[in-house]
Write a structure and sequence with these properties.
Strand content: 15-25%
CATH architecture of the largest domain: 3-Layer(aba) Sandwich
Shape: globular
Radius of gyration: 30 Å
Structural class: alpha/beta
Bound molecules: zinc ion
CATH superfamily of the largest domain: P-loop containing nucleotide triphosphate hydrolases
Largest sheet: 6 strands, parallel
Distance between the termini: 73 Å
CATH topology of the largest domain: Rossmann fold
């Protein structure tokens, strides 16, 4: 509601205009008539509430005789629009340049104010600094086209490219720049870097989160000690090639964990305790903008609702007032991921769970020679074409548990709690059930066990009677001390 209120106040629309808006359903439901109708009904209901809220809100502001930020901008626009503005401000309003920093975040309304201030001061020029690759605030009304189409909007322009980066090395630059420029809507730029590296500095950790993070931290500790060694060997002060993290004391080495959402950072304090010699911080991807660290670990880059790219569609109600997006897939999320990648001075790690790698990880894997990949030992057991037998949507993910190997559904236990044992014969593939048997999924293994006729989910496995020494069949779900577990047994045939 508050986001909508700010967007509405910045939009110059009236309440009557809102009534005329046709809300389009989230992109995956386009063309669906029920969904279109639902969205329209929801929009009407929302407007009913909104009318009340905005009336109360404005009454509250005026009772306090105060303005909010949107009012300041819109009243500024009104004042500068007045025909006598220049007369009134003569002698007081003489600007040669109006400077706007972080220009990529500007909204249409604010751009209008800036333009009018320029136009009402003769000889005044706009001086704007911005990077369209890092535009990540569309949800607050920022319109990237004001940057990418600057000349069309603001007139004759001289562009000065700030193309040298002092933060990251050439290896991160190569990957990050190609990644962001895959979207043709971004401006083309060639960056040069102050530092160079002999090794790939983008590392993919495809593993469980716990193991992936451990690998990243081990590699960071190793890098610090080899940096220290290198700088003690080189003549003091003459090693111009040393990276930003190099030659530093361990205690001043910074590591930043970045999650698409803050929920990815829950275990931050655990890692802080474990690696107390490092300065570890944690930010959401949005919160990381403008910050930097020697090493960066981007977490949970999974194909998931709360992964990276996030698959949460913005609400069609908010979408109705937001600036248009270019139609490249995940365009805003791509810029956000670029921001995360480019926070690192020396090395950036990207962690994804085996079998759940997001499209961004799959894209990074294609930079073969420029990325280092730490792949889980279980990776050879993962079969891309094998779907979860329950939901038929998720993939089967191998996991090394305390009692051996098993498989779970990639959609996660909140959506699908499938858990399959690994085959006891080949000890690698999952056992899949058909009408009569549990069959090993591996083509190279013909192991199978009958389905328990009583509970219809357990497997019949051989056991030995401790007294008679005779073999018999029992259900795998039988638990010694649990009377409620399946009690089925049968004699061995033959
Ligand atoms: Zn499933
Ligand atoms: Zn097998
Ligand atoms: Zn059973």
């Amino acid at each position: 509601m508050s986001s909508f209120l700010s967007l509405f106040k910045a939009s110059n629309l009236s309440l009557a205009d809102l009534e005329l808006i046709k809300v389009t359903p989230a992109s995956d439901n386009k063309g669906d008539k029920t969904s279109a109708l639902y969205n329209q009904v929801r929009w009407k209901a929302f407007l009913h509430l909104f009318r009340w809220v905005i009336t109360q809100y404005e009454a509250h502001l005026s009772s306090l005789k105060t303005l909010d930020f949107s009012d300041m901008i819109s009243q500024g626009i009104e004042m500068t629009q007045a025909s006598d503005f220049h007369q009134q401000t003569q002698g007081r309003f003489r600007f040669k340049y109006i400077m706007v920093d972080e220009f990529q975040d500007i909204s249409a309304e604010r751009a209008k104010l800036v333009t009018q201030l320029r136009d009402s001061s003769p000889g005044c020029a706009l001086f704007c600094v911005g990077d369209d690759w890092q535009a990540i605030y569309r949800f607050t009304g920022s319109d990237l086209r004001l940057t990418t189409e600057f000349k069309r909007v603001f007139g004759e322009t001289r562009v000065v490219t700030l193309d040298k980066t002092f933060r990251f090395n050439d290896r991160i630059e190569k990957v990050a720049s190609s990644f962001i420029q895959a979207n043709p809507a971004q401006l083309k730029k060639t960056l040069t870097t102050h530092t160079v590296s002999d090794n790939p500095e983008v590392c993919l950790l495809i593993n469980s989160k716990e193991t992936g993070l451990a690998q990243a931290f081990n590699s960071i500790v190793e890098a610090i000690s080899s940096n220290a060694e290198a700088s003690s060997k080189s003549t003091a002060g003459l090693d111009s090639d040393s990276g930003p993290g190099k030659g530093k004391a361990v205690g001043s080495t910074s590591v930043m964990l970045i999650g698409r959402f803050k929920s990815s950072l829950k275990d931050l304090s655990v890692w802080q305790k474990r690696y107390s010699q490092l300065q570890i911080s944690g930010f959401s991807a949005h919160g990381s903008k403008g910050k930097q660290a020697d090493f960066v670990i981007v977490l949970d880059v999974n194909d998931d609702k709360y992964g990276f790219p996030s698959k949460i569609a913005s609400d069609p109600i908010l979408e109705a007032l937001l600036p248009k997006l270019d139609d490249y897939a995940y365009t805003e999320e791509r810029r956000l991921f670029y921001v995360a990648l480019s926070r690192a001075k020396q090395t950036v790690f990207v962690q994804a769970e085996l079998g759940k790698e997001s499209v961004f990880v799959k894209e990074l894997l294609k930079f073969a020679a420029d990325v280092r990949c730490y792949l889980s030992d279980l990776a050879p057991l993962y079969i891309e074409s094998l779907f979860c037998p329950e939901c038929k949507e998720g993939k089967l993910i191998p996991i090394e548990g305390r009692y051996g190997l098993y498989y779970t559904c990639s959609l996660g236990k909140h959506y699908c709690d499938t858990k399959l044992d690994a085959c006891t014969s080949c000890k690698s593939a999952p056992m899949l059930r058909n009408d009569t048997h549990h069959v090993c999924a591996s083509e190279k293994c013909d192991h199978q066990l009958p389905v328990c006729p009583e509970c219809i989910s357990g497997k019949l496995i051989k056991r030995i009677n401790s007294k008679s020494g005779k073999e018999f069949l029992a259900c795998s779900l039988h638990r010694m001390k649990d009377a409620n577990s399946c009690q089925y047994t049968s004699r061995l045939a033959g």
